[in-house]
Here is the input.
Amino acid sequence: MTGQPTRPEPELRVVDNVAEAAVALFLELQPGTIVLSGGSTPQACYERLAEQRDYPWSRVEAFFGDERCVPVDHPDSDVGMANRALLSKVPARSYPIDGAACDADGYQATLRDRFGDHPRFDLALYGLGPDGHTASLFPGRPEVHEVERWVVYVPEAGQPPFVPRVTLTVPVLSAASVGIFLVSGHEKRPAMADLLAGRDVPASRMAPDRLIVLADPAAVP
Here is the structure.
């Protein structure tokens, strides 16, 4: 897997409640393989998804876009948050990143064991940082430009918490039929402007087959 994929034109949907809109879209798309994101807006989405008892969760496989290098029971763990909000409540299969070991090589091996030479997801959920980062791909960092590896170690985070990370790379995060940015809050407006305009921030490099931006009115420039 090499090269930077070409981004489709993003579909902006301005909604009053991002989490509720994301759940409705999830149920419409009926994904099986999904990439989960960390953050407060995805957490609200996961909590609502856990209420969808009739969804065929047993065919769902959940992967992670990134993880902080902390134990799973640490409050900063993205895997821990997703477990508490969703994965402990539904019979989906989870493929967690080992944050305690900060094991990028191990997660790359996990993905290769599952997908072979070409990762492919039905749905990828993306967050958007106020600096334009997504997953743990931060502006000005070399990890943003990595196209050979599927998973990389990030020694220095560009936003709090300032702990090392493990993250999927741009080509792997982009290997999805549908990618959805979940964006809320006025502090995201500058990053949203960069994302929608395709300016050179990490979030603008996400290039699934179809790209949807769900944002509340406060986040829209």
